[in-house]
């Protein structure tokens, strides 16, 4: 196993690789079965209907390969993104609030210091992506702007979606609608 997990976090020096491998070799069967069920449920669609089956599947866990899509659909972020084409880019190109930018820049280097993908030496470095998402959100939701800790939420969304605009819309769904 690699010293870095799939999301870019370094494992600690005392990480027990033998126990992890023993557990994961058994759990991989469960994960594979779950992924197959999710693939059948989605059938190439970018939509799902609310049902007890979907609720049960979600509670058991969404496989990594489907997580971004399911989050986008169930949160309403996918619908908002589709209803507002180009909005995210316009936010980035619009006039900027200097106070907001300074607050965001203050927290940039504090975001996941143990994650190799957020280091300035990473290629690509996710700090620029994170900065864009936070700037766009701060201008989108002026009542909230930027609050300390939003960098970790947005950073996690970026690691999951691997997509800047989707991360913005998920952040909006979380802060604006789900947990206002």
Automatic annotation (TrEMBL):
<comment type="function">
    <text>May act as a GTPase-activating protein for Rab family protein(s).</text>
</comment>
<protein>
    <submittedName>
        <fullName>GRTP1 protein</fullName>
    </submittedName>
</protein>
<dbReference type="GO" id="GO:0031267">
    <property type="term" value="F:small GTPase binding"/>
</dbReference>
<dbReference type="Pfam" id="PF00566">
    <property type="entry name" value="RabGAP-TBC"/>
</dbReference>
<dbReference type="InterPro" id="IPR035969">
    <property type="entry name" value="Rab-GAP_TBC_sf"/>
</dbReference>
<dbReference type="InterPro" id="IPR050302">
    <property type="entry name" value="Rab_GAP_TBC_domain"/>
</dbReference>
<keyword id="KW-0343">GTPase activation</keyword>
<feature type="domain" description="Rab-GAP TBC">
    <location>
        <begin position="61"/>
        <end position="180"/>
    </location>
</feature>
<dbReference type="GO" id="GO:0005096">
    <property type="term" value="F:GTPase activator activity"/>
</dbReference>
<dbReference type="InterPro" id="IPR000195">
    <property type="entry name" value="Rab-GAP-TBC_dom"/>
</dbReference>
